[in-house]
Structure formats: structure tokens, C-alpha cells
Design a protein that fits this description.
This protein is mainly alpha-helical. It folds into three domains: 127 residues; 216 residues, no CATH class; 34 residues. Helices cover 74% and strands 1% of the residues. The protein contains 17 helices and two strands. Helix 3 packs parallel to helix 6.
């Protein structure tokens, strides 16, 4: 009897599931048709304001379907339709870029996926629908890229980069990566005084590190005394421990402008190659980047507009070297050692999906920065940690001890004088 009840429950659930699947699919189809009708109304509207109102509504509808059905054909169709709507939705100033990014994600998700692999998830009819969408995506993505490039041509940053490319004849194997080198070197020369001040402070901090160790040892347990002596050493050798922060803050906007310049010129960078990028080994293997939906990272990219794993690794190596050279505080040696490893790993997750052109710029800049850092830290006059001046600062009485000594001395004098009067 008990087994019969269990059988009845299972049969009821199976029957419910059988009925609900078609109705569920029908509901999704209805939602897609409803969104398509909204787009049609937008296309038929006369004013741009009215068009954008309809397109905005359609964007919301397709986005909802896409999020609810990520791994289904309906979700893919919604994503493709969303990309098409963004092409026309001028109410969003970044509409073309959003359209391009969506098309690119579809292309990346299904790049190199065979029909046999698709059939593991989809029916034969669904596989045909997927193939049709992917084929259309390639055409639409190329068309939107042309629109974005035409729009960006009016940007001064685009024109600067294009001028450098045209100087060497816009040759795919040379002009594009060489333009990045020229721009990066120029920017590095402009901000060199800032980085020089930063590295000079870093050098001074490294040179007085033995003195800071000695202070830590001598006044162990007395944080007030350690702080007082540390500040006396800074004052003695004209060191401002915060002097390296301002140059970094000033540099960041300049470096991000350079990033935006490369982003503006991204569609043109699809023509550029660099050493292994664009070689026979391009697109030999790749993977979808974690936490970056639809972003495919190639071991070797096909052009400078695609992510390239080799460049990421080279950048991380350069970053590890520069971080190791930046260690200045002996009291935080363990933390600095850990940061020299953690920082590159953190930046790997940030930069792994960025275009190769951007990584190339960061790599060149970091190498130039590290060379400048090396020569500043290892050149010029150095602070002698064993000098008599350094010893005098460390062994001098603390301010509190001086006050006590003076009070005691004043007391004796007063007693002596009073004694004579008596």
C-alpha cells in the first residue's frame, strides 16, 4: 500500500512536468513575440523620443528573458534581439558599444563548438536555430564595429593614435603595436618627473631601513618612542614618507586617458598584429574568462583587439619584479613579500579579458617604470646607516627624557640657591 502511494506521487509529478514543459516553452515564445511587437512599434514611431521609449521597454523585456533562460535557445534569441535593439536605441549614449559587446559574447560562447557538442544540450531543431543566430551575429558584429569606428573618428584621442599609426604606413605587422610603443614612451617622458620623485622617496626609505630596524630593536615594546625616533630620522634626512603618494594620484588620470585612447581605437586594432599575435599559433587554444561573461581569452590572440594570455603573463612578471623592488619597510617584510605575489594575481583577474593592445601598453609602461626605478634606487649618493650622524639621532635622549632631565636640573639649582640664602 505504501509503495503504491509513492508510485502515484511520482506519476503525478511526472505528468505535471510533462504538461508544464510545453506550456513553459510556450510562455517564453509569447514573451519573445511580445518584445518583438514593442520593437516593431518603436520602428514605426515617427519621433526619436517615442522610438527610444519603445526600445527602452524592449531592452527591459529581452533582458528579463535572457537572464531567466541563460542556457536555452530562447535566452540566446533574446540576447541576439537585445543586441539588435541596442543598435537603434540612441537614448543610451553607449548603445553601439553595448550592441557590439553582446554580439561579441555570443560569438565567443559558441566559437569552435561543433554540432555534436550542441546536440548534447539542444534538439536538432534548436541546433539549427543556434547556428543561424551565430551566423547572423558575425555579420551584425562587423557592421556595428564599422559604426563605432566612424563615431570615434571625431575623438581627439582617436586622431592622435591614428596619426602615429599612419606615420609608419598603417602596416598590420608593425604600425599598430609601434604606435602603442610611441604613445607610451611619450607619456612616460611627460610624467617622468613625477615617477622620479616617487622612486627617490622609495630609495631613501630603503636606505634608512637598517636604521628603522635598529630603532625597532632598541625601543622594542615602546611604540611611542619608536614613532618619535622614526620621525626624527625622517626629519634628519629630509624624507617625506607620503611623498610617493601624490605622484601616483596625479599619474592615474593620465594613464586612464591613455587607456581610453586605446579603447577608442579598438576597432582599428583588429587589423594589428604583434610577434606571436596573428601568427600561425593564433586561436590554437583559448578559454572563457572566469567572472567575465562571454569573454574568450586566447593563448595567442589573432589581433591586438583580442585578449592574449601570453601578454598577461609577461605583464604579471614585470609587475612582480617592480613590486619586489618597491619593498621599503623592514617592519613589514612578510606583508610586502605576500603583496608581491598577491598583487599580480589580483591584476591577472582584472586584466585577463582586456584587449592585447591595452596589455601591451601596460607592459611597456611597466618595463620603462621598472628600469627608471632601478637606476634611481641604485644610483646617486646614499645614506650611510653606520654614520655618526645616524647613531646620534638614534641614541639621543627622547623628548620626554630631556624634559625630565631639565626639570631635575632646575630643581637642584633652586635648592642650592635657597640653601645659600638660609
Amino acid at each position: 500500500m505504501k509503495n503504491a502511494k509513492i508510485f502515484i506521487i511520482i506519476a503525478a509529478i511526472a505528468a505535471l512536468f510533462t504538461v508544464s514543459v510545453p506550456s513553459f516553452a510556450a510562455k517564453v515564445d509569447e514573451d519573445l513575440k511580445a518584445a518583438a511587437k514593442i520593437v516593431a512599434k518603436g520602428d514605426a514611431a515617427k519621433s526619436s523620443e517615442e522610438k527610444n521609449e519603445y526600445y527602452k521597454d524592449a531592452v527591459g523585456k529581452y533582458g528579463k528573458i535572457m537572464r531567466a533562460h541563460k542556457k536555452s535557445v530562447a535566452g540566446l534569441e533574446a540576447k541576439f534581439a537585445l543586441s539588435e535593439v541596442y543598435e537603434k536605441y540612441t537614448g543610451d549614449k553607449n548603445h553601439l558599444q553595448r550592441s557590439y559587446d553582446n554580439y561579441k559574447q555570443i560569438e565567443n560562447l559558441y566559437y569552435g563548438v561543433s554540432d555534436a557538442q550542441l546536440k548534447e544540450t539542444f534538439s536538432d531543431d534548436e541546433v539549427a536555430r543556434v547556428r543561424k543566430i551565430v551566423s547572423e551575429t558575425e555579420k551584425r558584429k562587423a557592421a556595428v564595429a564599422v559604426k563605432i569606428d566612424e563615431k570615434n573618428r571625431g575623438n581627439i584621442l582617436y586622431r592622435i593614435m591614428d596619426t602615429f599609426v599612419q606615420l609608419t604606413g598603417a602596416k598590420p605587422a608593425f604600425s599598430y603595436w609601434f604606435a602603442i610603443v610611441l604613445v607610451t614612451v611619450f607619456v612616460k617622458i611627460v610624467i617622468s618627473p613625477l615617477t622620479k620623485a616617487q622612486f627617490k622617496t622609495m630609495k631613501q626609505m630603503q636606505e634608512i631601513s637598517p636604521l628603522l630596524k635598529e630603532v625597532q630593536k632598541k625601543y622594542e615594546g615602546d611604540q611611542q618612542a619608536i614613532g618619535e625616533k622614526t620621525m626624527e630620522l625622517y626629519k634628519k634626512y629630509n624624507i617625506n614618507p607620503f611623498a610617493s603618494c601624490l605622484p601616483i594620484l596625479i599619474q592615474m588620470p593620465i594613464l586612464w586617458v591613455l587607456y581610453y585612447m586605446i579603447k577608442c581605437y579598438e576597432m582599428q586594432f583588429e587589423k594589428g598584429t604583434f610577434l606571436w599575435i596573428g601568427s600561425a599559433m593564433s586561436h590554437a587554444s583559448g578559454f572563457l574568462a572566469p567572472m567575465m561573461e562571454g569573454t574568450r581569452v586566447w593563448f595567442s590572440a589573432k589581433n591586438l583587439a583580442e585578449p592574449d594570455l601570453i601578454l598577461v603573463v609577461l605583464y604579471l612578471i614585470s609587475m612582480y619584479v617592480s613590486t619586489k623592488m618597491s619593498a621599503v619597510d623592514p617592519t613589514q617584510a612578510d606583508q610586502q613579500k605576500m603583496m608581491s605575489v598577491l598583487m599580480p594575481i589580483m591584476f591577472a583577474f582584472i586584466f585577463i579579458g582586456f584587449p592585447a593592445a591595452f596589455l601591451l601598453y601596460w607592459l611597456i609602461f611597466n618595463v620603462l617604470n621598472t628600469v627608471q626605478q632601478y637606476y634611481i634606487i641604485n644610483g646617486g649618493t646614499k645614506i650611510d646607516p653606520k654614520s655618526a650622524e645616524a647613531a646620534a639621532v638614534i641614541n639621543a635622549p627622547l623628548e620626554g627624557d630631556k624634559d625630565k632631565g631639565e626639570n631635575k636640573k632646575d630643581g637642584k639649582n633652586k635648592n642650592g640657591k635657597n640653601g645659600k640664602k638660609k
